[in-house]
Give the backbone structure.
Amino acid sequence: MKLFAAIKDNIGVILIFVGFLAGYVLLTDVFHVLNPFLFYSITVIPPLFSEYFGMLFEGLKSSLSLLIWAYMLALIFGVGLGALVGSKKLIRKNVAPYINAFSAIPVTLLTPYAINLFPSFRIASIFIIFLGCFWIILGSTTNAVMTIDRRYLENAATLEIPPVQRLFRIVLPAASPAILTGCNIALKLAFTLLAVAEMFGVTSGMGYFIQYYSDFGRFDLVAVGFIFMAIVLLAILYVFDRIRGRIIHWTLNN
């Protein structure tokens, strides 16, 4: 019963997937519209998953070791500093121009500096992913805290709630929907930056797998890498959505 209920709830997603799959088969196997060197037949891909699963799994472990460190650091510093900047007008007035200026610099352009400044390629990779996620989380947290209903803070002041309790019991819960939206965007960006971060100094990883076989023209394995990374991202986003639903269970869509 649960299986049928899940299918019913996600029937739109399933139909879109089936339509996309059917369209791909028509363009590759039936009408041969797409270049077969770049777009392989759908029958070629599944056997490669079992053949290269060991390498894909090792790449997953390597990539997660970068992503977890980078994202958690971005989450801690982004939310912490964002709450401070968003709640203090004087601080916001003085640091906002610098935040806007530095966050506008594409993170990928800082890759040469990261390689030369940090003692290892691994730390440089973590820094690149961290920085991209940090600016998004910082910006979303700052804006979320700034737009909190003033009455919440006035009531907290009337009740003489200490600043630390006010932060964790009023400010962050009230701002959490917008903060979590920024965290969701940052999580997706982390996978994009992962491909950049794994282009130097690593011999394993999901992004490395795609880049390595792309250099050798093995676009069948490139497709396998793309699909595997997409599945991992969907699984992580599903877990994230479940956690977000528990945190903001009081909102309209939860």
